């Protein structure tokens, strides 16, 4: 995996990401953590100061197409809602042919977007 995502309260001080993988080094001293070197009882919780790496899968073309289709539906609905509210505010009808032209333009735009 060449897409690491560093998480936790401590980020690596040095990190190298290349084609063969990644290398990272953390420096956690007793001055920058929230618990002492040793203790007795349950007064400290070192789990709150954890850190590590999540392997992130980059977005592929299928996810991009699905996102653009979902946003396409949203934009088409919002565009027609704006036209309906415009009709209601100016008290004048917009011709059906103008609705048809707008819908064809939106369909063509989102069709070419997913190519």
Outline the secondary-structure elements.
Elements: E1 4-8, E2 14-18, E3 21-25, E4 51-55, H1 61-90, H2 96-113
Antiparallel strand pairs: 1-4, 2-3
Helix pairs in contact: 1-2
Question: Would you write up a description of this structure?
Answer:
- This protein is an alpha+beta fold and 115 residues long.
- Helices cover 42% and strands 17% of the residues.
- It is built from 2 helices and 4 strands; from the N terminus they run E-E-E-E-H-H.
- It has a two-stranded antiparallel ribbon with strand order 1-4. It has a two-stranded antiparallel sheet with strand order 2-3.
- Strand 2 and strand 3 form a beta hairpin.
- The radius of gyration is 27 Å and the shape is elongated.
- The chain starts with a strand and ends with a helix.
- The model has no long low-confidence stretch (mean pLDDT 82).
Write a brief caption for the model:
This protein is α+β, with helices and mostly antiparallel strands and 115 residues long. The chain contains two helices and four strands.
Task: Report the sheet with the most strands, covering strand number, pairing sense and barrel closure.
Answer: 2 strands, antiparallel
SS field, number of helical segments: 2
Structural class: alpha+beta
The percent range for strand residues is 15-25%
Order of helices and strands: EEEEHH
Shape: elongated
Strand order of the largest sheet: 1-4
Mean pLDDT comes to 82
Radius of gyration: 27 Å
Q: List low-confidence stretches.
A: none
The total beta strand count reads 4
Helix content: 40-55%
**Could you give the distance between the termini?**
28 Å
